TrEMBL record:
Location within or outside the cell: Membrane
UniProt keyword annotation of Transmembrane helix present: yes
Annotated protein name in UniProt: UbiA family prenyltransferase
Keywords: Membrane, Transmembrane, Transmembrane helix
Membrane-crossing residue ranges in chain numbering: 109-131, 176-193, 221-240, 246-268
Domain of life: Bacteria
Entry annotated with the keyword Transcription: no
Membrane topology: Multi-pass membrane protein
Pfam families per the UniProt record, alphabetical: UbiA (PF01040)
Gene3D superfamilies found in the cross-reference section: UbiA prenyltransferase
Length: 298
């Protein structure tokens, strides 16, 4: 007896397979994109005082936008970094064989078409196009091979990400811009913490990163200093304007403590595993900061 698969079942299976594969591509970057950006969408929702049904639809729409946002990045990034990933990140789909190179290229074409169309539908086309231009510069025009280009890409990406998150809901306010600019500067200066964990693979493919250009020790001292003064900047620009409420103070202390912990870690705890953990803490700090925007930007 032969079992036949109906067309709807085949479509559902294919869709589920694509969703699962996209998650494998983006899962390592969820704390720098989907989670924090959706928090900023929530901050805009609270600021705009949307009704519960409107808020739910807007948050779901925003989460899908940022899924496509990071999917474009990871597809492009992993397509140009297969050999490096064999050393640094052997779990990625193109290394494990869960996706072929040809399949990833086809998916990238599809996402590069769908993402701006969806951005246009949400009213944030300019930010979607900005992100696509940055992605092309990073992955196909050499920015990703130079430490300055890598940091500028990360910082400018924060603008494309958070401006879109707010404008999915409403017009960007001066207070929202204050958050966007502060986090853009912070990420631009400190994102080289991600390069500490990848020194071996970056050296193998002759990529120019801060640790390889300026030396690992100098880079760690620079990052240590940045994380040490970070709490003062975050307090002044992000927390203090919201007023002396206990929950603001508690968040301020928590963010400051994480920043000081990172200041110590980048100098004293070295090696791929420790540096990977430090980078994960940076991602979680970023998400926590944007979660705080929900009640500081009301």
């Amino acid at each position: 007896m032969t079992t036949t698969t109906t067309a709807p079942t085949t479509v559902l299976q294919t869709a589920w397979r694509e969703i699962r594969l996209s998650w494998l591509f983006i899962s390592a970057d969820r704390w720098t994109t989907i989670f924090p950006a959706t928090c900023f969408v929530m901050a805009a929702v609270v600021h705009a005082r949307l009704s519960a049904p409107e808020a739910a639809i807007t948050l779901a729409s925003g989460a899908l936008y940022f899924w496509l946002f990071v999917y474009e990045h990871t597809l492009a990034n992993q397509l140009v970094g297969v050999e490096e990933d064999r050393v640094n990140k052997p779990f990625r789909p193109l290394v494990t064989g869960q996706s072929s190179i040809r399949g990833a290229k086809l998916r990238l074409i599809a996402v590069r078409i769908l993402f701006p169309l969806y951005g246009y539908w949400l009213g944030v086309l300019e930010w979607a196009l900005m992100w696509q231009i940055l992605s092309l510069l990073q992955h196909e025009y050499g920015w990703g091979r130079h430490w300055l280009g890598r940091n500028v890409y990360a910082g400018a990406g924060v603008i494309a990400q958070l401006a879109a998150a707010w404008e999915i809901v409403t017009t960007i306010t001066p207070d929202a811009w204050r958050w966007i600019v502060t986090l853009t500067v912070t990420v631009t200066l400190l994102m080289s913490v991600q390069d500490l964990r990848d020194i071996t693979g970056d050296r193998a493919v002759h990529r120019s990163t801060m640790p390889l250009v300026f030396g690992e020790t100098r880079t760690r001292i620079f990052l240590c200093t940045g994380f040490a003064i970070g709490p003062a900047a975050i307090h002044h620009f992000l927390m203090a304007p919201a007023g002396p409420h206990w929950w603001i103070i508690a968040t301020d202390v928590l963010l400051g403590s994480l920043s000081l912990l990172l200041s110590v870690r980048v100098v004293l705890l070295r090696g791929q595993k420790h540096d990977q953990r430090s980078y994960r803490l940076v991602e979680q700090w970023y998400t926590l900061a944007l979660a705080a925007s929900v009640y500081t930007l009301r």
